[in-house]
User: What shape does this take?
Amino acid sequence: MRIVVYPGSFDPPTNGHLDIIERAAALFDRVIVAVAVNLRKEALFSVEERVAMLKEATLEWDNVEVDSYRGLTVKYALQRGASAIVRGLRVLSDFENEYMMALMNRKLDSGIETIFMMTSKEYAFLSSSAVRELAELGGDFSDLVPPCVSRKLVEKFSARWRGREE
Amino acid sequence: MRIVVYPGSFDPPTNGHLDIIERAAALFDRVIVAVAVNLRKEALFSVEERVAMLKEATLEWDNVEVDSYRGLTVKYALQRGASAIVRGLRVLSDFENEYMMALMNRKLDSGIETIFMMTSKEYAFLSSSAVRELAELGGDFSDLVPPCVSRKLVEKFSARWRGREE
Amino acid sequence: MRIVVYPGSFDPPTNGHLDIIERAAALFDRVIVAVAVNLRKEALFSVEERVAMLKEATLEWDNVEVDSYRGLTVKYALQRGASAIVRGLRVLSDFENEYMMALMNRKLDSGIETIFMMTSKEYAFLSSSAVRELAELGGDFSDLVPPCVSRKLVEKFSARWRGREE
Amino acid sequence: MRIVVYPGSFDPPTNGHLDIIERAAALFDRVIVAVAVNLRKEALFSVEERVAMLKEATLEWDNVEVDSYRGLTVKYALQRGASAIVRGLRVLSDFENEYMMALMNRKLDSGIETIFMMTSKEYAFLSSSAVRELAELGGDFSDLVPPCVSRKLVEKFSARWRGREE
Amino acid sequence: MRIVVYPGSFDPPTNGHLDIIERAAALFDRVIVAVAVNLRKEALFSVEERVAMLKEATLEWDNVEVDSYRGLTVKYALQRGASAIVRGLRVLSDFENEYMMALMNRKLDSGIETIFMMTSKEYAFLSSSAVRELAELGGDFSDLVPPCVSRKLVEKFSARWRGREE
Amino acid sequence: MRIVVYPGSFDPPTNGHLDIIERAAALFDRVIVAVAVNLRKEALFSVEERVAMLKEATLEWDNVEVDSYRGLTVKYALQRGASAIVRGLRVLSDFENEYMMALMNRKLDSGIETIFMMTSKEYAFLSSSAVRELAELGGDFSDLVPPCVSRKLVEKFSARWRGREE
Assistant: This one.
């Protein structure tokens, strides 16, 4: 059985993330979507909220599991018995960081491969930070994220939007 | 059974190609290394020579097969029952072309995924054209290609090298 | 009246080109689509064929004119009384060449501005050479080019496709 | 009448910004230079100071207006009746962010076009943050910004420079 | 006598930095490794610690000196009588910032040249921030930094690692 | 004595090349400008013409020598007793090829360093091929190349320009 880990911040999960999850789920036996706990970086949603949103958004795929982890991604992947780490590529700017991270991961444990998959053209320019910024400025994000994420974003920001209009 | 196609010109095959083949063979059930026949582009080695070199160089892996094909890569992949096309990424310059080709392939047949794998750092800057140029200028390419390719390159270029020295 | 020139090879025109033409026609008083005659570069379609295809494909816009020219683009733009040269940007790889060409044009005549417009996301990865290659390999290009271009491509390549199948 | 909006942080305005303003003013009927209010990002100059500096620096062009706005740029552009958003391109690093922002803007409102203009070669590597850093380190910025900005920078930093020398 | 300055944050020094120092020391008469004091940016190691680590790690080269400086790099290079500033290039992402900084330095003082040298392929993807992140996550960094830096990193992080395991 | 080799096609030499030669001559004891003989690539000027133009254009610098060579650049550099190969960097597109070539050179002979120097901002976007294209299209290249190159270009192209005007 081939298991892959799809790690990330998912703050919040977007339709681009779901697109990659669907593609990976079609290609491998099991996909573990893993929210990286980063204590230093301030997040919009808590790790628990992100795990819950991902669980709701991936309900339809039997071979997808959602988890969170601390520390090195390769160590986590090893513990979970994964053969590879899956990373989504959106645009050029992603590539170089991903390449360096993949080289670093390979150095740390040569048994885990990193493979890159492409999001659909529709989501090629979509990122969690773009969604956060759009939400903050009061733009419409409803077709960029799954419905459960959309509801949570409205909850978070509606007080702020009201404040601005007054 | 998950079959992937690893297409390319392989003119000649390099240690970087073999590195990707080995990585893909560890991750999928079957890897079809497929030499693309391009009638317009002048090649150093014939398609038959390239297939023969690849066969010799991949003898050790049971789940690797070597073939050649004409026409669209996605059509060939479909015919062979592949789930994905594997592409090796070396450096940034590769990325954009690969990305466009992957988008084009996806457009032509949405059932075939394209996944990118990274060559080892050792081969990150190695290409078939660099090997050809090095051979032409009389440089040492022996640790950049498999032994069978090295022998064929010496055959091709030794007359030319002699001519230059006279 | 603000006139802009949209120069290119258009070999053949694609839906991406038409997308830019439509956007420019909405922003400026007159758009001159100008096929650059390049005697050194071998083309699939003759200049006359390209002008004819562009004329048919741009019939619906009153303020769009199709022409061809030789020599420096800035000189042609000056002769036609244009304020700016319009260039479409598809992906990153375009940018640097365009930037250099724009700097060179500015150097040659500081009175002509170069402005860049973006194609729709739908056509962000589409190029004339991709269309030519697709046509040559027997792929389906019907939704990448205007109908009149599609018919011409079928004419050009149908003999070749028959030859391959035999 | 064709109105364009030229949005930015302008913290502080540089000669590169003025170069774009001058070019846009020659190409469109009205240019609205719009300082984006970003409450989260700490700025060197207040929005009021930035608007004042831009007003002083653009006095010579009749069809240039200076304003500030909150929220989404496309919404502001719509309210002002603009046909397009103008963005200056300096170097490659700009391009990708600009491209994504333009795609996002287009998604939010397809009636507003984004066009890119190039700064003069002289200012191709100049940015507000470079000016701020230069000022902080005590370097000479007098030919990188308009005189009114230069005076304001001297005011801001002279106390700091004195402190360091003691 | 040709003196060059090799400036940087060196927080901490890596084997990639030492690789550049060794190459520069073979090419120029004197290499001044200069730790830039940046009061705004929070650092892992103090300037004193960084200077001490660099001194220990460069003991073997007679023509290498370690120093620290404040303010503009070109001003410091001038004071030290240097002909050039040496910068190491790792990967593409470096290039553009370095290019801009070099242009800015040239503008400030045209008498100081900037030259770029390449790290060994082994260290092409290594950075101080990657080392810091690896240390924080409990990964093995022992062959990425000199032994004296490795010891200091263990000191800094061992308390943190213990805390996590409990 | 530190000798460096500055290799290239120089077809024709431009003011950007001379800018690098001047900078290298100020930094090293001897600069050997070396025209690479490439039998496969069709050139505008013969190797002899290029050497002659470079000699005339570099007359003023005592420590600059012009030569031509065949085969591998590193072998030639070794034969000439050089410590380093100098390469000029213009824009981003250069960087990656240069980086790969430098890695390849280092692999072939670890005793020769490659160092990169930046052209002046004035020539950052200038290349021999841009000059050739400009000359072919009848544009003004007089301030892009040294006077002796300008005369040779006029000789080469004047017949062609007359032909076009008739």
Strands of chain A lie at 3-8, 30-36, 64-69, 84-89, 113-118. The CA atoms of residues 20 and 119 of chain A lie 6 Å apart. Residues 147-165 of chain A form the longest helix (19 residues).
